[in-house]
Design brief:
The protein has 313 residues and is mainly α. The chain contains 14 helices and no strands. The relative contact order is 0.12.
Length: 313
């Protein structure tokens, strides 16, 4: 499922576009938000498809080697460890994953160079060599190699980032977050499973409404919470503060005041992390100080009301 952190990032991106647009209606931007979230889910499936394609590429290489005019002993007796990886077989057996990919035309057909590039990076790595020649042929070892594929080979593939940037503007900041979803999916698989259990787009109905509600509330409360933030900024020229920093703080204030099931500390920490991702270190320290001051003020005014899980600190 799409993490709350990624949902917050999606809202931040769409908010930035909306605030800087002359268009009054937010319906278009709500549709953009939904589309952006769905694209992340597509990317989750695409990463699994890429692993399958790399395996198929490796299999084709083996078949070509066998059909040489004078094949070597190694060509005729290839190491099939990667081809027969049991975790990859579980991914291939997921009819739900394959149906989503087919229905949404998710594939790498137009990017054979990426498949080749990823395979060759595998082939030339120490980790791949160790895996292929290890005496440990357990499901756990297969699963750990698949996790390594996502956490190392894809994360560090410059060509992958280039290809995805050309494909969709909505994927620019998604890659590591979405790969985290792929890794969690594999971590949950058991040897007895016939197929991987693909995550739903959202964890629950609360998550389904979270991004849309957050976007709409920040949009409606933009002027009010912007003024609240400005009142708590001393010795700073508001015009010189990055707009992204101000939006991060507006989102934090909105979430703290309007999402009773989310603890204040959770919201506070999430937006500090967001500031680190999109701003400088100085900005995150600045946002930390301003938000801390605003939260204390809101508590004194009795405006922060939490319930259920939101009461945990």
């Amino acid at each position: 499922m799409i993490s709350r952190r990624l949902l917050r990032i999606k809202v931040l991106h769409i908010l930035y576009s909306y605030i800087n647009s002359s268009e009054d209606s937010i319906k278009k931007y709500e549709k953009d938000l939904d589309f952006s979230i769905e694209k992340s889910y597509d990317l989750y499936h695409l990463f699994f498809i890429l692993l399958i394609d790399v395996k198929e590429y490796a299999l084709n290489r083996i078949e070509l080697a066998k059909n040489k005019h004078v094949p070597s002993k190694k060509d005729l007796n290839p190491n099939l460890r990667f081809i027969e990886n049991k975790a990859i077989s579980q991914i291939e057996n997921s009819s739900r994953l394959m149906s989503h990919a087919e229905n949404n035309k998710l594939n790498w057909v137009k990017h054979p160079e990426l498949i080749k590039n990823v395979y060759e990076s595998l082939l030339n790595s120490v980790a791949y060599d160790e895996y292929m020649n290890s005496t440990d042929c357990s499901f756990k070892a297969d699963k750990e190699f698949v996790i390594l594929f996502f956490s190392d080979y894809l994360v560090n593939s410059d060509l992958l980032y280039q290809v995805l940037e050309e494909h969709s503007i909505f994927w620019n900041d998604d890659i590591e977050f979405v790969l985290g979803m792929n890794i969690k999916t594999i971590e949950k698989t058991k040897e007895k499973d016939e197929r991987v259990s693909v995550f739903n787009l959202f964890k629950n109905d609360e998550d389904r409404e979270f991004a849309k509600k957050l976007f709409r509330l920040v949009s409606v409360k933009h002027s009010e919470y912007s003024q609240l933030i400005q009142k708590n900024i001393k010795n700073w020229d508001v015009d010189r503060i990055a707009q992204m920093d101000l939006l991060v703080m507006e989102m934090a204030v909105t979430e703290i005041l309007h999402f009773p099931s989310i603890p204040v500390k959770v919201s506070f920490n999430e937006y500090i992390e967001l500031a680190k991702f999109y701003s400088t270190d100085k900005s995150s320290y600045f946002i930390n100080g301003v938000l801390d001051k605003i939260i204390n003020q809101l508590k004194e005014d009795g405006r922060i009301i939490k319930a259920g899980r939101g009461l945990k600190e």
